[in-house]
Amino acid sequence: MKTIKSIFALLFLSMGIVSCSDSTDDAMPVSDNPLEAFNLTSSFEANGHVLELYSDQDGYFLGYNEVYVRIKDLSTESYIPDVTIAWNPVMHMTDKTHSCPRSEITATGDATVYKGYIVFQMASNTDEYWELSLEYRIGGTTYNATEQIVVNAPVDGKKTVNVFTGTDDVRYILAMMPFAPEVAVNDFSAVLFKMETMMNFPPVADYTITIDPRMPSMGNHSSPNNEDLVFNPESGSYNGKLSLTMTGYWKINLKLLNGNGDILKGEDITEENEESSLFFELEF
Amino acid sequence: MKTTYPYGAWSGYLGHLILALCLGVIPLSPQKAQAQEPILAPIIDSILPIDLKEVIVISSFNRGIEHKSQPKPLSTLDQYLESSKKVSMVKRGAYAWDPMLNDMTSERLSITIDGMRIFGACTDKMDPITSYVDVSNLSDIHVESGQQGARHGNVIGGALDMRLEKSNFRPLGWTGAVETGYESNNTAQIVGGELNFSNEHFYVDTDLIYRKAENYTAGGGEEVAFSQFEKYNLSTNAGYKVSENQKLLASFIFDEARDVGYPALPMDVSLARAFIGSLSWVQDSFIGDLENWETKLYANTITHIMDDSQRPDVPIRMDMPGWSDTYGFYTQTELILDDHHLIGKLDGYYNRSLAEMTMYPNDPNEQDMFMLTWPDVRTLNSGIYLEDKISLKESSVKLSTRLALQTFNVADDFGLNSLRIFYPDMAQRQTRVLKSVSTHYHRQFKALHLSGGLAYGDRAPSVSEGFGFYLFNSFDNHDYIGNPDLKNEKALEANFKMAWPIKNLDIAVEGNYFHTWDYIIGEVHPELDVMTIGADGVKVYTNLEYANLYNVSLDMVYQLTSELDWSGLVSYHRGTDQNGRNLPFISPVDYRARFTYGDGSFSGSLTLSGALEQNNFSADFGEDRTPAYTLLSLSMGKTFSMGQDRLYAKMGIENIFDTYYSTYADWNNIPRMGRNFFMTLSYAIN
């Protein structure tokens, strides 16, 4: 028996030598300021209040911008809960003005913080600028504030918003929702609006956006197991899956289909046709 | 009290189980034992001729005379292997050939150095383990076919165990040698040396070899671009006798190759480097009646840098470095009990395989493209092996079994998420149970030896087969994707051998058959899009329903006079899947005949070798019909005594008629070397 015991002892010993441990995830950091992780993109005084706008980006950029809002009462130095806010961004072009697609502003888990998103379809330039008007209601009183803001062109020059006329002669705005791309199957979302008037951009529901990601530098390599974007009524966005097989520059070729399956914009990728006229770009 | 234990299928009998174990002393191989040296517990198998084992003797010049049978003493290890009867080599250039046994390559074999598991770090098999040692530090290579090799690991095709040369406490004092060689075809220069000290209590052996070769020229004069290489290898072995019964042994190998061209591939290797070390404890007697207890701890680390910086014209520049680290142990012991000779062995290893690919876009403003081609796969394998050789009247039986547990862990999240693009539900870890049983029977009728065996074994997928990510195979021009859901490959194997000496003629006929279920191979998935620019498609590793492989050979030696003999070998191989489709890398009929002359100081050989046309090729794998070829080579050697020292000179011509040819195992049909003159000089200082 001694022999067998020693053998088992050896066996276990050997397992000890070769086994390895996995690291554990760190706990999420806790902070007192709910917006500490974001950047203050605008702060302006009006009506005895300071209106603070935050973004996870370093300013406003062309395309989809998620914006957090809170309002400080200067007399009490405290943030005001339960405010009803509406917003209206307006582009002052040299010859005309127009607005852009945006969501409602809704409450968040923190009663003093509100959030929504704006899709800027053009950037500011030396002659043309954006103005953001906020109309907010505290108690029974309605206040207004307007401030000029700067919308930057993307630093990397990648296309994340498309403005186009479909085969149905409707003008659409399609914007990619930002995400941190990984070599993996990524959750991938976009928002779609149509332009009814210069000032009115209602969301479009129940269309389909097909995706075909390609790497032009790799002979137009594509990836498997992508899922087209379909409308989710709860979030109001189009959601799908995007597979990225490596880092680098990807062109996400798109087609927009209406509820009947008619192609409103975009083309299939073939040997002859290497890109669609409707696309997003990303690089990581 | 003696422990008794039921032994597998061996009904009823209780035998002594052997258990503790470890590495073993590498027994002195019988042919190396010289008359004047003490016999150090040699494990000479007098019970059962090891019929299915082939021993390729390498050894260095001053250790014996057996090297004279090798036409080219300082040839690469690859050439030694190729000259063997059972091993063939897949070639992607002049360096780092990939050994095949029974038409199977590394994933179906166990390739070990003194029993140590080592795994190449190249996703494209450009660094087989045999490329990290050299002839300077090996004494011999044991080739065991099929499950006969299960002692070393879970195998289908067999095992190659390369044994390091050791002075092994022989009372030789200081000895040394310098060797140099030159080959005309690729202006290869070889310089080597060794310095050894050995007495009855202690020995230390060191050797060093350096090789540098330029491009070689194929038959007819065509230069094969990117076939150069440069490498050096340093190794040290030491042993200390703690007591008459106990030995502590250590070995260390450093091997580095630089600027290695692979003409058959789109990329080369700027660096392939290995550190290989081990420590062993050996005891002649162990607990009770157990003897020859050997325990070895080992570690090795390999760095392999593949790049295309020397290639003038590529669609995209890329770097593909890879790393493989292995830590392992084994412990083994033996028990001789009446007619039984039992061996027990416990072993385990832990391997980490990581490889990446970075591609540099032609537009310098674009980000680099990066992927993990081996996603940091951690393999843990622990096994137990038991063997019993039973001597009966005029016959013997060998029974052996291995049971192992193998786990894979994809440790890198980046790599795991990459693979989950293809396998969304893929688990990070998986465990497999691996089994092997084999029986072998040998019987002697007067001079006639008959033997046969039946065996069953399985293996887990290799890292590339299970977890590879867009590995480009330039032979069939497809990208390969691993498949973590592969089933284990299982083989039922039958083998036979008949050896019949008639006067001066020895005839041996031998054959084996493998019926392999769930044979792992890549199959085209047309819906997947290629990654590599210019590739024809994507293959995913898949289990075939089954595949059949068989190999037969006829081997003859005729002693014409005491100095002159003739040997001949003809072999035939066939491999098909369940639909009769040919498997890749199956040799056509090949043959070899050699006259060997040797008296006291002069030796010479004339070799004819060749193959018939390869008709049973696998077009799906990129193979085409390989034409027949025949080669003739000649070598001559002479030993001169200079006092106590000896000088040995050898020269010869390979491929005398400068034939242009390539074999079935030449990647993308690259032509082999044309006419080559070689010369080696060895000087031994005693």
Structure description:
The complex is a heterodimer of chains A (284) and B (686). Chain A is built from 1 helix and 22 strands. Chain A is mainly beta and 284 residues long. Chain A has 2 domains: 39-152, Immunoglobulins (Immunoglobulin-like, Sandwich), CATH 2.60.40.10; 161-283, Immunoglobulin-like. Chain A is globular and about 65 Å long. Residues 6-31 of chain A have low confidence and may be disordered. Chain B has a 22-stranded antiparallel β-barrel. In chain B, β31 and β32 form a beta hairpin. The radius of gyration of chain B is 25 Å and the shape is globular. The model of chain B is unreliable at 1-51 and 64-68 (pLDDT under 50). The interface between A and B is large, with 37 and 52 residues.
Which terms would index this structure?
heterodimer; A: 284 residues; Immunoglobulin-like; 2 domains; 10-stranded antiparallel beta sheet; 6-stranded antiparallel beta sheet; B: 686 residues; mainly beta; Maltoporin, Chain A
